[in-house]
Write a structure and sequence with these properties.
Elements lengths: L2 H13 L9 E2 L5 H11 L12 H4 L15 E3 L28 H10 L3 H7 L13 E8 L2 E8 L2 E4 L2 E2 L11 H12 L11 H9 L2 E6 L8 H10 L3 E5 L24 E11 L2 E9 L23 H4 L10 E5 H7 L2 E6 L14 E9 L21 E5 L13 E9 L15 E7 L14 H4 L6 E6 L3 E8 L2 E9 L6 E9 L4 E4 L5 E2 L13 H10 L8 H13 L11 H11 L9 H21 L7 E2 H10 L2 E2 L2 H11 L5 E2 L1 H21 L10 H8 L2
Parallel strand pairs: 1-4
Antiparallel strand pairs: 2-5, 3-4, 5-6, 7-12, 8-9, 8-12, 9-10, 10-11, 13-20, 14-19, 14-21, 15-18, 15-20, 16-17, 16-19, 22-24, 23-25
Helix pairs in contact: 4-7, 13-14, 14-18, 15-16
Length: about 700
Amino acid sequence: MSSTAKFLAKRQDREDGVGTNKKPIPFNKQDYQKLKRQCLEKNTLYSDPTFPAGSESLGYKELGPNSPKAQGVKWKRPKELCANPQFIVDGAKRTDICQGALGDCWLMAAIASLTLNHDVLWRVVPPDQSFSDGYAGIFHFQLWQYGEWVDVVVDDRLPTKKGKLLFVHSAERSEFWSALLEKAYAKVNGSYEALISGRATEGFEDFTGGIAEIYKLRSEAPPDLFKIIQKALGLGSLLGCSIVPRTQDNAKEIVVTSLNLVERHAYSVTGAEEVHCHGVPVELVRLRNPWGKTEWIGAWSDNSSEWNEVQPEEKAKLNYSAEDGEFWMAYLDFVDNFSRLEICNLTPDTLTSEEVRHWNYCQFDGTWKVGSTAGGCRKNKATFSSNPQFVIKLEDVDDDPHDGKDGCTLLVGLMQKDRRKNKRFGRDLKSIGFYIYKVPDKYKGRSNVHLNSDVLLQEKSFEKCNFANMREISKRFKLPPGEYVIIPSTFEPNLQGSFILRVFTEKKATASPMDVNITANIQKDCISDSDVDPSCKQLFMQFAGNDSEVSVKELQQMLNKFVSERTDIKSDGFSLETCRHIINLLDKNGSDKLGLVEFHTLCIMIQEYLEIFKKRDTDKSGTMSSYEMRDALKDAGFEVNSDIFQVIISHYADKQQAIDFDNFVGCLINLEMRCKMFQMFDKNTGIIELNILQWLCLTLN
């Protein structure tokens, strides 16, 4: 199946709800229930062939087959590690997550925060799994991956050293849900090593499908941030924080501050409360170190003297003395010691409670294709407008604005796909960003347009999100009511990639891709024998055979002679396929050849195409750039959207994204032929139905 067919089939699945949390996609096409049933029937334990218990699943460099860290690793099932393993012991808790010998504290922080919202947790970790009833060595988890939910199957063989789990484990040694979840996450990303280093927001998003915000602390914390934290926790949002060292010395070493905080380490934010000390209100935040130890020793730490001044009824509400990696600290100390706060806002379908306010949400898939939709940033004036465009209409201002200012709150996130899978191939993240423009008055109310350079380069963007080499960039805006177009791009042009664009709004808003409708103005004037130009008739007689018609090979000879004699256009010759398409398009009597009138029609078409080609060949190189092709198609009577344009460029442009004359003609002929085929079957509905015979006859033509 072609990549285009796969793309269209996947889009159809999305429209049918496949990939939502209610219809997750079986990852690697592995059906959990079917595989489990087969194991039970055969009385065998499941072994996953797509993520085997071997070195390739551990990693490729630091955990590669010959690395010291991978030596001595043995894969064991929980029943080989303890007498009575359990999936979950006394409910899933933050203390179930203790980091192992893998640098994925960011993931541990996300899992710890996940346990604070059981509605979200039980979707990611289906609870009806155990090591007793129906045990077959197989488990499954549901993860959000780049816009769609997937159901991930794993066997329960886990990497160990000296009889202990090598990576994440529970404080309760007989509990294994967190270790198996880590394995499922490693599987979707290619290996355990792929999980080394990251930010908690990535885990937050992959467990919820939510969208993350990042706040810089210390001197840049907004004045109402404590209230934002409280509100976010009340909405079920997931929060994490970390410390960026004030100096870059010993960048790879673990550094513990004098107050026992760990630099370059991800913590979970699990609570925010106000207590009274000597009758004065004090704002406190609760944090958790995924190590399960190494806690803050400053004010309001476990057993510190400040707790002695708090009323017993307030202390009773707060667990503040357990040695479990979780601790309280004053909010002012929090913003002074930590560098970043990350908040993951949840999508409406994640929040099951009707008592909390929900975001409105929309999501779009897109691609940057070299030569067609990878236009780069605004500095690339010739190509910038070719980037994908999305329009959003904001009508209602926020209720009870948090900052006291009227406007429409908008949270936009742009994510590039497959970041961790590409790590083993040495592929770096692209620098991505987006612009927001006000829609010009003459285009308001329309989504069937594509704003060109004449529009975009004359106006300054209304807002933008600066470019960064990150999996996702996001930014919160407050905009006046109106219509806006969002343009996501890479910084450099002609960089291939796939992305999802997500938009959260406080009030209901409408959003859609902004692209032209597909149209074809292909009406041709009727020509009779008396209209044939004498010079055209002479050319026809020169190439026509004894049957007074031009065959496919004769047409190829004529066209190739024509382009070979011209110095203002480049061509590597017309193919037989293109010549067959020309005859299929123009042949009126079914002879599979061209008669005089049909030949004359072709001569007129070729002359029109030549004039368009030379007009759009602005640098007089004899070829058109792929970006010039869009306007050339429009000159020829065709409006195509970005999906079709990408297919055209991939088929007709060369490696330098240039289009010569024969490919230009071949493209226009093919477009016209297929549009006419569609019109023949269309019953004025814009949709056609074909049986297998009709489909094959048309596509093989």
